[in-house]
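Course exercise 7: structure representation. Students receive a sequence record and must write out the corresponding structure in token form. The form below is the worked example handed out in class, using NADH-quinone oxidoreductase subunit A (123 residues). Read each field label carefully; the graders check that inputs and outputs are placed in the correct fields and that the protein name is recorded exactly as given.

STUDENT ID: A-19
EXERCISE PROTEIN: NADH-quinone oxidoreductase subunit A
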Amino acid sequence: MNLPENYIPILIQAAVGLGFVIISLLGAHFLGPKQKKGNSVKNQSWECGVAVEGNARTPFSIKYFLTAVLFVLFDIEIVFFYPYAVNFREFGMEGFLAVLTFVAIFFVAFFYVWKRGALDWDK
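STUDENT ANSWER:
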């Protein structure tokens, strides 16, 4: 197998990353605290000394997760504006039109989500 020299640093970085993950997982398994099976007081959940109310396995509404995903989606959109803001003179009119297209696609997605009722908490 003959790899170009440009791929060697990428392979080294991938090996180091994979090695870190493996060492972390094995270290947590072998060096971490061991929990005894059973229903002891130590295995019960608690929050700041306050008695537990209800079950921790109560399902959340799908609206919560949908809102979280939408927040991340539109938050990531803002991240893509930074490179454009730094280099907007170099991009010229072609870059401006690309950003307008990018924003237009997200506006279409936003209005779709809005019309579908994903942002209405009362429903």
